Amino acid sequence: MVPLSWYLIFAAALFSIGLFGVLSRRNAVAILLGIELMLNSVNINLAAFWRYGDVFNMTGQVFAIIVFAVAAAEVSVGLALVISVYRRRNTVVADEIDMMKW
Amino acid sequence: MTGEQIAFLVVAIFTLVAGLLVVTTRNLVHAALWLVATLFGVAVTYGLLRANFLAVVQVVVYIGAIAILFIFAVMLTRKDMRDQGPQLNRNWLVGAILAMLTFVGLFFLLQSWNGMSMRAAEIPLKFDVVFELGNALTSPDGYVLPFEIASVLLVAALVGAVYVAFNRK
Fold first, then answer.
1. Contact criterion met (CB below 8 Å) for A5 and B110
2. What is the pLDDT of residues B78-105, one digit of tens each?
């Protein structure tokens, strides 16, 4: 039987990798890839707590499914914004998208 | 060490290596393909946790829809695909240190928590997990309201995405 700690440490490592991607990539699409990794690590935590807590209470899995829906919404809006910005400014580098900065 | 632990370690190391490649690969199409590998590893993790429905949804929604959406977005913004200059910004070292600090902080936080050695109860054979999950999602004394709000959010986000990306010329 795998201890709960292994799942939680695995999820923490995946979250940190995603955080690094969000903080240090220049390409806006790559930043969204990092956000996906972070959302996935959260979902691993939710599923692990469902399995190791009360199996008859489905809250963890229900929450994970709602996170799936929110991730799909986030990614569709994010990529639409990136494509819209690319069409107007001809760049997807996050440093150069600074028209709201003065 | 039992077979399940070895399987978990293999899947976890594969997933973490693929995740590292997602955030470090220069070519974004390759990064998106490594994201597919990472998501597949996470799906296997759900399988190890006996969350079979989540594993299937992970493959269908994440790998089948979101990863393909990423690959399309990379191809539509093609000029920057092999970006001239560095792929990491000037502050990447600060980002790496912050990510490491987050991991170390979470690690020690988890060490000091006494629920870590919790054992998973066996799931009874006549307990149908998918049936119970569907029941919880749709019964009025379950989670029908959050479920409906999530679906409204998804529709609103998709309509908004179409509006934002629409070409008015």
1. yes
2. 765 455 667 777 888 999 999 999 999 9
Q: Given this structure, which CATH class describes domain A4-94? A: mainly alpha
- For the record, the structure tokens of B17 come out as 């290596």
| Interchain CB contacts (distance < 8 Å): A and B | 258
One-letter identity of residue B8 = F
B64: in domain: yes
| Structural domain includes residue B18 | yes
- State which residue of chain A sits closest to B102, comparing Cα positions: A16
Q: What is the pLDDT of residues A44-83, one digit of tens each?
A: 999 999 998 888 888 999 999 999 999 999 999 999 999 9
**Distance (Å, rounded) from C-alpha B167 to C-alpha A88?**
10
d(CA B42, CA B48): 10
Mutate to test the interface with A, among B8, B72, B145, B164 (most CBs of A within 10 A): B164
Judge: A82–B79 Cβ closer than 8 Å, yes or no.
Answer: no
Pair A79, B70: CB distance under 8 Å: yes
> pTM of the entire structure?
0.91
Tell me the CATH number at B20. Answer: 1.20.120.1200
Give this complex's ipTM: 0.91
